[in-house]
Amino acid sequence: MPELPEMDNYRRLLSHEILDTPITDVAVHREKSINVASEVFIQTLVGHKIIYIERRGKHLLFHLDNGRRLLLHLMLGGLMYLGSKEDHPDRTTQIEISFGSKTLYFIGLRLGYLHLHTAKEIDEVLADLGPDLFDRKMNEQKFIQRFAKRRGALKSALINQHVIAGIGNCYADEIVFEAKIQPSSKLQDLTEKDLSDLYHASLKIIHHAIDHGGYIELPLTQDDKLTGGFNDLCQVYDRGGEPCLRCEGTIERAEIGGRKVFFCPKCQDEK
User: Fold this and answer.
1) Taking every annotated instance into account, which residue ranges of this chain make up the domain Formamidopyrimidine-DNA glycosylase catalytic (predicted)?
2) What is the pLDDT of residues 165-211, one digit of tens each?
3) Looking at the 3D structure of the chain, how many domains does it have?
4) Which domain holds residue 159?
5) Within this chain, do residues 259 and 144 fall inside the same structural domain, yes or no?
6) SS in 3 state form for the chain?
7) Of 166, 168, 234, 271, which one's alpha carbon is 20 to 30 angstroms from that of 203?
């Protein structure tokens, strides 16, 4: 599932490609991927422009020049590709938005969605979403406060979008590895220093992932060399049975709350 770095990578790349360009055509191949009738969706978009792209956690918000918003959540398996009919990947698309010769293809939206909302509706839909690491109101102390009074496994809290938005399975594992804490550690057993280490590890990992284009392997455009660069930089995620890159241990795979988790039992402390 695309997480904060992947969605921020999309935001930055698309902002250079499609802003202030008239939407010339829209095709909806799967009604369940949108929240209004296809005719309404198409009529609201065609002839208008996307003037700003915003990210909130794992969501992207496309601001239209008519005041409406498109709310995107790719969920599990969702991707985007910007290109022509000749070069786009041989994948089923649910929605296509064309900007003249370029088309933005939304791929794999079986669980994901692209919903049309007013600005007020967006605030209501995302009201329960927690702040993300780059929220202007977020800092180390507020990060610590959001975890200090909670109980349960550390990994479960890190991927809870009501606590901190944008972190999912991959980056939660990478963050706790960087902080040298086991993902199964109980929040109530963590010290303020542990939470401080976790905050700085979170910033380091997320910034590093953004700089390297996240872990999605499909390029956004035909000449995109950035997207997916972090895929080969993961220290523990999806590396079960492989040697730890920091010590002489072996990466283990386990489950916490029904979610797979990867960690090194030798250099990550269990609290």
Assistant:
1) 2-112
2) 999 999 999 999 999 999 999 999 999 999 999 999 999 999 999 99
3) 2
4) 140-263
5) yes
6) CCCHHHHHHHHHHHHCCCCCCECCEEEECCHHHCCCCHHHHHHHHCCCEEEEEEEECCEEEEEECCCCEEEEECCCCCEEEEECCCCCCCCCEEEEEEECCEEEEEECCCCCEEEEECHHHHHHHCCCCCCCCCCCCCCHHHHHHHHHCCCCEHHHHHCCCCCCCCCCHHHHHHHHHHCCECCCCEHHHCCHHHHHHHHHHHHHHHHHHHHCCCCCCCCCCCCCCCCCHHHHCCCCCCCCCCECCCCCCECEEEEECCEEEEECCCCCECC
7) 271
